[in-house]
Amino acid sequence: MIFRQLFESESSxxxxxxxxxxxxQAVLLDPVIETMERDLAALHELGLTLAYSLETHIHADxxxxxxxxxxxxxxxxxxxxxxxxxxxxxxxxxxNPLKVGSLVIQPRFTPGHTDAHHSYLVELPGSLRAFTxxxxxxxxxxxxxxxxxxxxxxxxxxxxxxxxxPGDTLVFPAHDYQQRHVSTxxxxxxxxxxxxxxxxxxxxxxxxxxxxxxxxxxxxxAVPANRLCGACPEETAGLIEDPPGPSVQG
Length: 250
Description:
This protein has six helices and 14 strands. By secondary structure, it is α/β, with parallel strands linked by helices. The protein has one domain: 4-Layer Sandwich (Metallo-beta-lactamase, Chain A). The protein is globular and about 45 Å long.
C-alpha cells in the first residue's frame, strides 16, 4: 500500500492518503479544505488517481474538501451510509466496504463521538492498521458533548470494536495535538488516561462529564458545510468562500 500521513495545523487534523500500487488509485481519508492543494500535489507526485474521498464522520472543527476534490478530479465522495447525505456518491458500512484496487477499507461502526462515526481497518500482509477518526485518539478520545455524542456509547464502541483488535494493530487517529503520529491498540488499552488500564464504564463517563471543553470555534460553519460534503458553490452558492484554486490536479 502507498501511504502518507498528512497534517493540517489549525485543527490538528490528520488526512490519510491510501494508494493501491497496482492500479495507482487512491483514497483521501478526512481531507481538509485548507490543505487541498497540498493533497492534490501529493497525488500528482506519487502518480496516483484519486478514486474516493472518505470521511470518518461529519466534522465540527474543519470543512472537508470532498466536493471540491470531486469537482477537480472526478473522484467519488464516500461517507458513512448512516449519515444519509444526498451529496455523497457512496455510502459505506460494515457490510459495504470500500474497495480501491487491491485495497479493502473495512468500516467499523464506532459511535459515541457522533452517532454515525465509523473507523476503518486496512489489513496488509503482516500488519493491521486502524484509522480511528475521533473515536480513539493517542492517550485520549473524541469529546461526546455535541452531535448526538454519548460517553456510554463511545466506551462500548472502543472496547468492542477497537480494543478487541490484535495488540500490535497500528492506531492512526484523526487528530493529535502533541505532534504524535501513531499508536497501537495494546498501548491504548494499557495507558490511555481515559480508557486504558482497566478504566471502568462509570469512571470513563465521569471523566467525560468533567472535561469542561470550550465550544468548537468552527462548529456553526463546519457542520452545515460538511452535511453538504464541503458545500461546493454549485450546490450551495455563498455558504463558504471559494478556496484558492489548486495549481496541480491529481
